[in-house]
Specification:
The chain is of the alpha/beta class and about 210 residues long. The chain is built from eight helices and seven strands. It is globular and about 45 Å long.
Length: about 210
């Protein structure tokens, strides 16, 4: 479903004017393989992640379901498609990313299976989502501790509210989800304050 016009500006500001951009940069750096490769960022929004990957010497493509969002992307190329039907052949990428995407889907498994499909054997699938520690109360405490206000506070509390209503993953739960998608979880870590986010990457198990 296309986003309202005001949301396009919201997500662009989120990735470029708040601490989220720094968090995303650290996640991308943590996920990158040592050698240059082809990278797909699913649910790219304004495409900060592909821009960061390209700066590190990789060829990166951003994909989003919203054409208007892609129109203001920070990095070309961009492809319009949904996560559940990626328009690429099997094994096309050495790394497939999705930051704050899976937890928003009603059923995350089909999208994760598609990410696994387009990733080459030996390549990586990396995701960033709320951890089991994320809650509105925990996010409010972190926002108060850091003195967050305006857009930075609003986006953190909004993320927490959506996570409470949808998905929050522990390492064990995420490992089980990866396994159902044909992936083997290789690494995971907590980020953001007391660990409100979980980063994870895995490889194809076939």
């Amino acid at each position: 479903m296309p986003l309202p016009a005001e949301d396009h500006a919201y997500f662009l500001a989120l990735q470029t004017r708040t601490g989220w951009g720094r968090t995303l940069a650290r996640f991308v750096a943590w996920s990158l393989p040592p050698a240059p490769t082809r990278i797909l960022d699913v649910g790219t929004g304004p495409a900060l992640a592909p821009a960061l990957a390209a700066q590190a010497g990789h060829f990166a493509v951003g994909l989003d379901s919203d054409a208007a969002m892609l129109a203001q992307r920070l990095h070309p190329p961009g492809v319009q498609a949904v996560a559940e039907a990626l328009p690429f052949p099997d094994g096309a990428f050495g790394l497939t990313l999705a930051a704050n995407v899976l937890y928003l889907l009603d059923t995350p498994l089909p999208a994760l299976r598609e990410m696994a499909r387009v990733t080459a054997p030996g390549g990586r699938v990396a995701v960033l989502n709320p951890s089991e520690r994320m809650s509105v109360a925990a996010a409010t405490a972190l926002a108060d501790e850091r003195g967050l206000s305006g857009l930075a506070r609003e986006t953190l509390l909004n993320l927490a509210a959506r996570a409470e209503a949808r998905y929050r993953w522990s390492a064990a739960d995420l490992g089980a989800l990866f396994a159902r998608a044909g992936l083997r979880l290789r690494a995971t870590r907590l980020a953001m304050g007391p660990g409100l986010l979980r980063w994870a990457w895995g490889t194809r198990s076939w």
